[in-house]
C-alpha cells in the first residue's frame, strides 16, 4: 500500500470542490488514459479582474489523483489567472505534504489541467507535448522517457553518465539493469541509423564500473569517516547540477547529519534525496546508517 | 470492527494448525535432515511425511516427484530453464499472454537471450484458442507453460488436454498451478503434465515455500546445484519448518476441496449477485462458468480501482485491483488488457478472493459496503452524469491525453 501523507488521505476521503460547477467559464480536460487518470477542472472567472471566483473538479483516478485535484481547486481559488499559472506541480505536491515518487504524475496532471483551463478561457489551443514513461529510478523519481531523451540528446553510453545527467541510478542502484536496457536500445538505433559518412558503431554500453563491494572487514573510525566523506563527495556534482549541495555537519554513531543547500533544501524531493544518499552510504559502509537533516541534531530520535 | 480479508489470491493466513506444527522446528527440532545423528533423523522423517502429504494432494504417483523449493516463482523458473537446458535442440517456449509475471518476465528475458517465445492470446472471456495452440506446437517446441488457473480472474485453462497435445509434439508441459492447488481436485498420475508449480502461501502455509512437481522420467537440469538435497535436484539445506507447515497445509487443503467447491463457491456467488443487483455498469470478468470457486473479479466502469480499495480499506475490507495505480506501473493489468476490457473498465476492476475462513456475515457486510463506495466515486467521475454514465462518455469528456 502507498505511503500517503495524512494530507493526501484527508483530501481523498473528503475531497473539496468535487462535482460540476455552475457558471463555469474555463474548463480544462486532461488525462493519461493508460495510467488511468483523467481530470476535468472547472473555473468560474470574473471577466473584469480575471480572478478565479470558484473552482471544482471531476476526476477519474486513484487516491492521489483525487487528492491532487482537490488540493489544486483549493490553491487557485481567489487567485488571478496569471497568479494561478505560477502554481507548479511541485507546489501541489508540497501542499499535500508530498506524494510518493510513483504518484508525482498526479500533480503534473493537476498543473496541466490548470494550463488547459486557462487556455480554454482565453480561447487558445493547449497542446501538451510531454509524454510519460514507466518509472525507472524510484530513489529520484526518473522515468524512462526522460532517460531516453537525455541519452539520445547527449549521446550517453554508460549508466554512470546517466546518473550524472538525470540522477537516475545514483541511489540504490537496483535500476541499473533498466538503464542499461535503455542505453542498449538507443545504441542499437544509433547503429542502424543510416549515417553516410561513418559506419562506425558505438560499442554497446557496459555496466558502470562495478561499485566497490561492501567492505567485510570492520573499518577503523578514521577509515569510516573518510568513506562517508568520499561517498558524499561523489554525489555532490549531481546535486550541484540541480543548483543544490550537501555538507556533512556531524557523524554521531549511526546518525549522519547533513545540510542540504540551495535547490535541494526544503524541496519536496529533500526526503527522497536523503533516502537515495543514505542507501548509497549504507552500501558503501556495509552497515546501517541514518542520514538526517542537521536541523535534527540534538533532538531525541523516536 | 473486525477486518474482512478477501484477498486470498494474493496470500492466505497460515492455518493455526500449520503454525502449531511448525513451531518445534524452530526450537528443539533444529537438526539438519542430512546429518547422521538423531537430531537430523527426526527432521528427515518429518520432511518425508510432508512430501507424502503433498504427493497425496496432487495425486502424484511417487513421493520423489515432489521437490521442495523456496516459492512458486522458483518452481516456475526451474521448470522452464530445465526444459531448455535438457533439450538444447529445441528453442521454442509456448505460453500465454495472461501468465503471472513469474513466467512472463522470465520469458521476456529468454527472448532477449535468443529463444523463441510464442504467447497465446485469449478472447474477451479470457479463453484460449486451442487451434492456435495446435498450430504453434512444432518440432522445436521445448516446453509449453500454461497456468492452471488465472490469479486475477480465476479462469481455468484446459491444461490436461494441452499436456497431451504438447507430448504429441515431443515437448514438455509445465503448469503454474499456484492458484489452482487446493481448490481443484487433482490426480497428476492420470495426466500427462510433466511439471507443476505450487506455492505454500496460497493454501494457508507460510510464504517462502514452494513445490515443483517433476514427473518421473522427465529430463531435468537443476536450477540450484550444490549439495544432494532433494536428490540433487534442488540444492540448499531444506527450509524444514516451512516444509513441515506445507505438509500440514496440504493435508488440510485436501480435506477442504469439497468445502471450496460448495460453501466457498456459494458465498462467492452470493457476493457477486449481491453486488451486481445493486450496482449498474459493473460486470464480472473472465470465464464465468469455468473458474476457481473462490474468485470474483468485477469491473466497475468509469471509476478507478485504487480509489475503491482505499475506501474499502477504511471499512476494514481487503481486496485488490487490476488498476495501474495499485501496481506502481503505469499500465492496467495485462490480463484485463489481453481480454480487450476497455481502459475505463480495466482500471476499475476489483478482485475479491475468498477462502474457507470467509463467513456469510462477512460477505453480507461487503455487499452492503460496495454500492455507496461506487456511487461516491462515480459522483466525482467526469464520465458520470446525474442519471448514470454520460450518453456518449467518450465524446462529452475527451481529455487531452499526455
Ligand atoms: C499464478 C501465480 N504464479 C506464481 C506466483 C508466485 O508465487 P510466489 O509468490 O510463491 O513466488 C503467484 C503468486 O502471486 C501466482 O498467483
Annotate the secondary structure layout.
The complex is a heterodimer of chains A (302) and B (402).
Chain A: H1 6-13, E1 26-32, E2 37-46, E3 51-60, H2 63-76, H3 81-85, H4 89-95, H5 104-121, E4 135-137, E5 142-143, H6 144-154, H7 159-166, H8 176-192, H9 221-241, E6 244-252, E7 255-262, H10 270-285, E8 290-293
Parallel strand pairs in A: 7-8
Antiparallel strand pairs in A: 1-2, 2-3, 4-5, 6-7
Helix pairs in contact in A: 1-2, 2-5, 4-5, 6-8, 9-10
Chain B: E1 4-5, H1 16-22, H2 38-58, E2 66-69, H3 72-86, E3 92-96, H4 101-112, E4 116-120, H5 130-136, E5 141-145, H6 159-168, E6 172-176, E7 195-199, E8 210-214, H7 240-278, E9 282-284, E10 295-300, H8 305-314, E11 317-318, E12 320-321, H9 334-338, H10 343-346, E13 349-353, H11 360-379, H12 393-396, E14 400-401
Parallel strand pairs in B: 1-11, 3-4, 3-5, 5-6, 6-7
Antiparallel strand pairs in B: 2-8, 7-8, 9-10, 10-13, 12-13
Helix pairs in contact in B: 1-7, 2-7, 7-11, 8-11
Bound molecules: pyridoxal-5'-phosphate.
Tell me the Rg of chain A in angstroms: 23 Å
Strand order of the largest sheet of chain B: 2-8-7-6-5-3-4
List low-pLDDT spans of chain A. Answer: 194-204, 206-215
* Helix percentage of chain B: 25-40%
CATH class of the largest domain in chain A: Alpha Beta
CATH hierarchy, class of the largest domain in chain B = Alpha Beta
The largest β sheet of chain B comes out as: 7 strands, mixed
State the shape of chain B.
globular
The assembly state of the depicted protein chains is heterodimer
Distance between the termini of chain A: 23 Å
Strand order of the largest sheet of chain A: 1-2-3
Number of strands of chain B: 14
User: Biggest interface in this structure?
Assistant: A-B, 43 and 34 residues
* Strand content range of chain B: 5-15%
Ions, cofactors and other bound molecules: pyridoxal-5'-phosphate
Number of helices of chain A: 10
CATH architectural name of the largest domain in chain B: 3-Layer(aba) Sandwich
**Strand-and-helix sequence of chain B, N→C?**
EHHEHEHEHEHEEEHEEHEEHHEHHE
